[in-house]
Design goal:
The complex is a heterodimer of chains A (539) and B (433).
Chain A (H helix, E strand, L loop, with lengths): L6 H7 L6 H26 L9 H9 L3 E10 L5 H15 L7 E6 L13 E7 L6 E4 L5 E5 L4 H19 L2 H12 L9 H5 L6 E10 L6 E3 L2 H8 L1 H6 L5 E10 L8 E4 L6 E5 L1 H4 L3 H8 L8 E8 L7 E3 L11 E4 L3 E6 L10 E3 L2 H16 L11 E3 L9 H32 L7 H23 L2 H19 L12 H43 L1
Helix pairs in contact in A: 3-13, 4-5, 6-13, 13-14, 13-15, 14-15
Chain B lengths: L1 H17 L2 H8 L11 H13 L13 H13 L3 H34 L15 H17 L1 H8 L4 H17 L2 H14 L6 H12 L6 H26 L3 H13 L10 H7 L2 H16 L2 H7 L4 H15 L5 H9 L14 H24 L5 H35 L19
The chains are: A alpha/beta (539), B mainly alpha (433).
């Protein structure tokens, strides 16, 4: 360029847009932007937020599934027979603590009541010596076992110890049921299918809805009504109040008209008074619930519902009875549907005298439903251990204190096992799918659950049932909330292969020119080296 | 003389169209002309909200700048008919500014060409800039700007793109004069309105370096332009803060431009993609799209260091195509500037294809919209295809023009045809490499 050209006009002629230096700088600037801005932005904006969870603790809880349930036993004897107490204690120790297999270890401790918690939730055994033929044991409402012995000899005491062992293991504690339930939850055993009590029992839930339905299939012929509020107040409320720490019950009632069951009862003639009656066999009973269940509205509440149905038998079928498996007529005229509820056929007597609207007698249906409700909750009605053991009636509350402790223990173990299992499944899921977003509220729930499980286990080990129930319920609710949280089920997690489908349509066409120009730059670089080598050779 | 005719024809057309309410109604409902950022309806809604409550920055209404709202609401209150006059006047000023700019620029180019005549290759005189370019091209540009349908529609719909075009035209005029203060002022105004013209700062330094009266180094030019821009920007932001004393009103405007939350269809590429992207990747792709607008500025300013006016042209074109809420008004500005490079038109590779594509896609867009929204016999894909064809046509025009320009600059040094005899040289030009 000559100096006569004005420096201002020099730019008109400069070809620097095609020079290597410019092109290199332009390419470098794009590269810098992509690597300095693009990659960090990509990394930061597509990261998956995962709050930290205590995976180690969950897996250690799952590995060590054993539970220790402490049951304190207190033996009381009349004043001058202390050695009898010792003999009985030793015998009981031998008999009760002999099989320690299974995941639940029942620790029957005979220490003195030094752990003075709020309530003594153990077993009190009182001894009396009387001149009777054989020994008797009487289980009072509050759980005290009062045993009457003819004498204080050793084999009598051994026999008594065996009797008490059966009583405790099968009824008061019911070890077998607890083992089966835990095995069922952890899927380790299949014996649960043969445990009839376990099948009938509803699974744990903090809240239940009790729905009482009165079905009048032909209201034009005979209609009935009930005052369920008053009846439930009188019969149910004491029981439900006693259970308030365990479950939260909500009672509802309804009357349904024109809801009929399409059944054909069989006819039989009664030998005594030559009157005709109808009956349903157990096989027919299994077909009765299905036609009417849709109309019951049991899905209105989001809590599990236990349905109790009173069915006013039609005029043409009255009286209708239920035949049991061994051929007798059922006394309560009601049948239990496991985990669903119960149903009773109500026969109106003196139909011709009724003027249309009868009031259903609460004694009749409540006397059927309350035992069924007890079964559904997990209790046993009229347990039979031997003819020497008598159980005291539970009274107006319908649940004895020892039965309440039994339920506490049962549900506590169930809550703990179920929440450990839920947490384990959750941690397995979250470990497998590494892309699921874990929000903070889920992390809080999981931490709460783990803490509560540990506290509940410790309380069970001490024999403190109420604390154990409280913490186990908290753990159960927290683990269920964490597991069923809706954010874990949404499409917030991205499988790795789908990420390609997201990036490729945009970035592949853009990257093609970049890759081609990189290739040219590389070629030019190599050509430059080649030229320099040639130059060196010729020099 | 012809330019005065063109001006009056343009003014007449605008005033006539302002009197036709059905045309106004139809145009103001067209998504190609009106965007959520610039529409007049939203401005009126924002003004009503401001009168009735303190803040007007509502999620679904006005998203423009505060000063514009203040100005228009003041005018609306005192003299409603002056709003139309304001829009027509801004169009007229833009056209005049473009005329003066084209004249000055072509004169300077011709002068540079004459000065360097000895350095040019023999026999290239057929493609050089001629004096009739200097006399005819500005008139053509002025007439194009006043009478083309895109800018007519933009003015009639009273969208704020008119003011943006005004600021850019004044920026171009001050660029060839080389005065940094004015350039920075117009860049600041334009950036205040829509964020993207901040890239023009790169070109400001280069224009000042080339066209200033007293020569100085590039670094000093850049520093000066940055300082002036900061000063003007601070002044404008302070004024805006005085009008509406909350910081959220300042930032929500830019937040709207950058995060593009409103997916109303327009001629851009943002809306279709973000209606269907997964939430997990939403932020990432917003960043990608915004980087796409801005990434071309630095390599191009490196490559077009000595041709800053062409750089400004390219930046305006790319911004107008890829920004978050484009409209046809953004395209009208740089399409009118195409005759500036008419001396390079012989090196355009496919002008008829791109021209036809632009025309067809412009006509197809309202048709597809009608079929989608009114007739319910199409869906969003049809409309997006039409707007994508429009965008592609604009991109092809841009790249073709750039290629032709660079080709011309190579040819005037090396001759019309490539090297003869022996070597087969491939004239390969790549914009990025």
């Amino acid at each position: 360029m000559s100096t006569s050209v004005n420096p201002k006009h020099r730019t008109f002629l400069s070809n620097d847009f095609n020079s290597k230096k410019t092109q290199t700088w332009a390419a470098i600037s794009i590269g810098v932007v992509i690597f300095a801005f693009g990659i960090p932005i990509w990394w930061k904006t597509t990261e998956v937020y995962r709050a930290s969870l205590p995976f180690d603790e969950i897996s250690s809880l799952y590995e060590d599934k054993s539970l220790i349930v402490k049951v304190p036993i207190l033996v009381k004897v009349p004043e001058n027979a202390d050695n009898v107490a010792d003999i009985l204690t030793n015998a009981l120790k031998l008999d009760l603590n002999n099989d320690m297999k299974g995941q639940i270890k029942f620790l029957y401790s005979f220490d003195d009541m030094n752990s003075k918690s709020n309530k003594f939730t153990g077993i009190v055994i009182r001894l009396h010596v009387k001149s009777t033929e054989q020994m008797e044991a009487h289980v009072a409402k509050d759980g005290t076992i009062t045993c009457t012995l003819p004498n204080t000899e050793k084999n009598t005491i051994d026999q008594l110890s065996l009797l008490i062992r059966d009583l405790i293991k099968d009824v008061i504690i019911n070890e077998a049921l607890l083992h089966h339930m835990v095995g069922n939850i952890y899927r380790t055993t299949h014996e649960d299918r043969h445990d009839r009590n376990l099948i009938k029992m509803v699974q744990a839930n903090p809240k239940f809805e009790l729905l009482f339905s009165l079905l009048c299939p032909e209201p034009q012929v005979q209609a009935a009504t009930w005052d369920m509020e008053k009846d439930s107040e009188m019969f149910l409320t004491p029981m439900l109040n006693k259970l308030q720490h365990l479950f939260d019950f909500h009672v509802g009632s309804q009357i349904l008209y024109y809801t009929a069951i399409p059944y054909k009862p069989k006819v039989k003639k009664d030998e005594q008074n030559k009157a005709l009656y109808r009956y349903l066999t157990p096989q027919q009973l299994s077909l009765v619930i299905n036609p009417i269940e849709g109309r019951l509205g049991s899905q209105v509440s989001s809590d599990p519902t236990l349905n109790f149905v009173v069915y006013l038998t039609e005029k043409k079928f009255t009286p209708l009875y239920i035949k049991t498996e061994n051929g007798d007529l059922s006394k309560s005229n009601a049948f239990l549907v496991p985990r669903w509820g119960s149903m009773q056929f109500y026969n109106i007597k003196n139909i011709s005298e009724s003027n249309g609207l009868t009031r259903v007698d609460p004694q009749i249906f409540m006397s059927a439903f309350i035992p069924h409700l007890r079964i559904l909750l997990g209790l046993q009605n009229n347990p039979y251990v031997g003819e020497q053991i008598i159980f005291e009636d539970a009274g107006y509350e319908n649940i004895a204190d020892w039965e309440l402790n039994y339920l506490y223990r049962l549900r506590t173990v169930e809550h703990i096992a179920s929440s450990i299992h839920t947490l384990h499944s959750l941690s397995k899921l979250l470990n497998q799918i590494s892309n699921i977003v874990i929000n903070d509220n889920i992390a809080t729930e999981v931490y709460d659950a783990v803490e509560s499980i540990i506290k509940a286990k410790a309380a069970l080990k001490n024999g403190d049932l109420e604390t154990a129930l409280k913490y186990s319920k908290k753990a159960f609710i927290a683990s269920e909330t964490a597991f069923f949280d809706p954010t874990l089920l949404e499409l917030l997690y991205f499988p790795e292969d789908q990420k390609f489908a997201i990036y490729i349509p945009l970035f592949l066409p853009i990257s093609l020119p970049i890759l081609i120009s990189l290739r040219y730059a590389f070629q030019r670089c190599r050509k430059k080296d080649f030229d320099e080598e040639e130059k060196e050779k010729t020099d | 003389m012809y330019e005065i005719c063109a001006l009056f024809v343009g003014i007449g057309l605008r005033m006539w169209l302002f009197r036709m309410p059905r045309v106004l109604l139809w145009i103001s409902s067209r998504p190609e002309i009106e965007t959520p950022l610039t529409s007049w309806g939203r401005l009126i809604e924002g003004e009503a909200l401001m009168r009735n409550s303190q803040s007007y920055q509502n999620k679904h209404s006005y998203h423009g700048s505060t000063l514009l709202l203040a100005l228009i609401s003041y005018l609306n209150l005192n003299a409603p008919s002056s709003v139309e006059i304001l829009f027509i006047a801004s169009d007229v000023i833009s056209a005049v500014a473009l005329y003066l700019f084209a004249q000055k620029f072509l004169r300077k180019e011709l002068k540079s060409q004459k000065e360097c005549k000895e350095k040019l290759f023999k026999g290239v005189s057929s493609i050089l800039i001629k004096p009739e370019h200097v006399s005819k091209v500005p008139t053509i540009i002025c007439a194009l700007y006043m009478c083309n349908p895109f800018s007519l529609a933009t003015c009639i719909s009273k969208s704020s793109v008119t003011f943006n075009n005004l600021f850019l035209a004044l920026f171009l005029l001050s660029a060839v004069q080389g005065s940094i203060w004015q350039m920075a002022f117009y860049v600041a105004l334009s950036t205040y309105e829509t964020l993207y013209p901040v890239q023009l700062l790169l070109a400001t330094g280069l224009c000042a370096w080339k066209y200033q009266e007293k020569p100085s180094t590039l670094k000093i030019c850049y520093l000066k332009s940055l300082a002036c821009f900061t000063f003007w920007m601070a002044l404008i932001l302070t004024l805006s803060f005085l009008c509406e004393p909350t910081t959220s009103s300042l930032l929500s405007h830019y937040k709207f431009i950058l995060s593009a939350p409103d997916q109303t269809p327009n001629v851009g590429v943002f809306w279709y993609f973000f209606t269907e992207v997964f939430d997990h990747f939403h932020t990432f792709f917003i960043c990608v799209f915004q980087i796409n607008v801005l990434i071309y500025s630095i390599p191009m300013s490196i490559k077009l260091k000595s041709h800053p006016v062409f750089l400004v042209f390219m930046l305006i074109a790319i911004t107008g195509i890829f920004k978050s809420y484009p409209s046809v008004g953004d395209a009208s500005l740089w399409l009118c500037l195409l005759p500036l490079w008419s001396h390079t038109f012989s090196y355009l590779r496919y002008p008829s294809v791109t021209g036809a594509m632009l025309l067809t896609s412009t006509i197809l867009c309202p048709v597809m919209w009608h079929m989608w929204i009114n007739a319910h016999s199409a869906n969003a894909n049809f409309y997006f295809a039409a707007t994508l064809a429009y965008t592609t046509a604009l991109v092809l025009i841009t790249t073709d023009t750039a290629m032709a320009y660079l080709n011309w600059h190579v040819r005037i040094r090396e001759g019309l045809k490539p090297c003869v005899a022996g070597t087969s040289e491939k004239a390969v030009l790549r914009l990025m490499n």
